[in-house]
Amino acid sequence: MILSHGSPPLHADRNVAQKTASALFTSQSYCVMRLSRLTLSILVLSLLAFAQESEHMHHHDAVNARGEKAMGFSQTATTHHFKLLPDGGYVQVQANSADDAMNRDHIRMHLQMQAKRFAAGDFSNSEMTHDRVLPGTPQMQALKSAITYKYEEIERGARLRISSQDPAAIVAIHDFLKFQIEDHQTGDPTTVKAEE
User: Fold this and answer.
1) Total domain count for the chain?
2) Residue 2 within a domain
3) Quick check: 130 and 80 in contact, CB under 8 A?
4) Whole-prediction pTM
């Protein structure tokens, strides 16, 4: 082997090159592995979000299907609104179309019956729709003599005004309405507003 003065041996250059290549390969492998883990994490999170959204949509569809049976009118051709007021609040349902007399009439019949049932402490239709005991209803049953239910006809539907002077009853009414805002996905405020 011919060596020039002060030059490292040729096999030393190969060792350095191999170590450099090995380090580069290890660094690239590490980057690929981290990228793969990141990609896998994103994929898993996306699948979980999709599954949650799918479950949420399935739940809403199930609420609508049960609601149609319990209420006797289309849940997609009508719109529910719930409003929290200082002394209680209201449930309001209207047909989406002014020409939809059938759903309008069924809404009115349903809310008239609900006023009587609720006053008697019967929340079975709401429980059937939502497939559970609704928050606030056990207290509303216990305090039924302190709660007033007033049916009102409005354009394209009806409103059921629920009110009380009893602070515990008002809290229960608010819990009942807040749950329905969320489960019916109405987008209505879940805070108390003054009556308009």
Assistant:
1) 1
2) no
3) no
4) 0.68
Going by pLDDT thresholds of 50, 70 and 90, the confidence category of residue 130 is confident
Q: Which of 126, 165, 171, 174 is nearest to 145 (CA)?
A: 165
Nearest to 175 by CA among 160, 161, 190: 190
- CB of 100 closer than 8 Å to CB of 156: yes
Name which of 88, 91, 103 is nearest 160 in CA terms. Answer: 91
Nearest Cα to 180, choosing from 126, 128, 139, 138?
A: 126
For residue 172, name the pLDDT band (cuts at 50, 70, 90).
very high
Is residue 137 domain-resident? yes
Q: Which domain holds residue 110?
A: 10-196
Question: Tens of pLDDT along 45-103?
Answer: 666 655 555 555 566 677 666 666 667 668 789 999 999 999 999 999 999 999 999 99
* CB-count exposure of residue 194 (10 Å: 0-12, 13-18, 19+): exposed
Q: Is 135 helix (H, G, I), strand (E, B) or coil?
A: coil
Q: What are phi and psi of 135, to 5 degrees?
A: -55, 140
